[in-house]
Amino acid sequence: MSVTQQLINNQSYKLKATLLTGIAVAGMFFADKCRAEYGINFPPPAADVAQEIYDIHMLTMQITTVLLLIVFGFVFYSLYYHRKSRGFEADQDFHNSWFGNWSWVVVPVMVLGVDLTIAGKADAVLKKVWDVPKAENILDVKVTGHQWWWEFDYLDHDIKVESRYVPEKESGDLYLREVDNRLVLPTGQKIRFLHTSADVLHAFWVPELAVKKDAIPGYVTETWAELNREGVFRGQCAELCGTWHSRMPIVVESVSPQQFAAWVDDQKAIKVAAAAEASADKTWSLDELMAKGKTLYDTKCAACHQVTGMGLPPAFPGLKGSAMVTGPIEAHLEIVIKGKEGTAMQPWGSLNDLEIAAIVTYERNAWDNNTGDVVQPSDVKQAR
Questions:
Q1: Contacts of 90 (CB under 8 A, 6+ apart)
Q2: Which of 149, 157, 251, 355 is least buried, going by the fewest C-beta atoms within 10 A?
Q3: CA–CA separation, 20 vs 24, rounded Å?
């Protein structure tokens, strides 16, 4: 090989080494930026049942650690003292010794004893998890999964809360972990969760509450919790429910009973004010309805039909230039109010007349639809 060729090869080697080093450094940098969490254990429980589950987990880990140390202790001891360089030879008569005969009985019995200890405790806790206690002052919360948001009904207080993820520019480091409306719950009171779904399978999961339950369309299942400390606890949908599955976080805010009572009063006052505004004998302008409608649409409709109105065909049709949106107002109102059977379009019974009027007006005039139609709350009331 010539000297010139050697220099070329050396330069090529240095270039490759430099590129690999650069890639490795960049990988370390981005790995640091993209890491999710360095936690190595369950989060601290916020309910008594969750604490019992945590205790079983820790007991299992302690037993496993002890067994690991014993087994590896024997392995390392044997590797070091029984190595060939010290003159040891493999025992060819192990099965005829006392230990060789009885170890096949003693070891499985010991393992079975450990398993039964853990299983016994786990069975008792599992019964507590699934057997909802009968209490006079239990708080019933109906949890309904939607594509892709959560609906919480406080059945004892006639309050409905819709909870959706917060976009990255507003949530920052808590992107896909923060919501616009949290599930507010009191401490020191038993809470019964009634799970169901409006469309596909979802799963309500908050680790600190020991709650993980599938939400099944057409069925109602139960779980319960009793929070023992205040704080903010984050969960998520634990069932693959579609393209925006990752955008279904759950945020539980645990507060004192006094704070919860004040929150209930505030929610009722907001509900009364919204109902009064919707029923007021007022003629709303196009600009007013468009402004209110855009906010409502981006919050409640954009997940399926997209902010651009292009939709996600064929499951979620586009609204830009749609015959339904630019056609008769009566047909447009009917599908919003009553939904469409056999599709993901559910009835929007939770919206008042003003909200539906604003959304329909916005859809009929956004994205170059420009129908010029203005739908008033009185039109929605008549359509109901």
A1: none
A2: 157
A3: 6
Read off the pLDDT of residues 8-38 as tens digits, 9 standing for 90 and up.
445 555 555 566 666 655 555 554 544 555 5
Instruction: Give CA–CA dist 47/39, Å, rounded.
Output: 20
Please, what is the Cα angle at 71 between 66 and 76, to 5 degrees?
Answer: 125
Q: How far apart are CA 152 and CA 156, in angstroms?
A: 12
pLDDT surpassing 60 at residue 159: yes
Q: Which residues contact 129 (CB under 8 A, 6 or more apart)?
A: 49, 53, 210, 223
Residue with tokens 């906010």: 295
Give the span between the Cα atoms of 301 and 115, in whole angstroms: 51
Say how many C-beta atoms besides its own lie within 10 A of residue 50's C-beta. 26
Residues in contact with 47: Cβ distance below 8 Å, sequence separation at least 6, in sequence order: 208, 209, 210, 225, 226, 227, 228
Say whether 124 sits in a helix, a strand or coil.
helix
The order of strands in the sheet holding 159-163 is 159-163, 149-154, 139-146, 190-197, 221-226
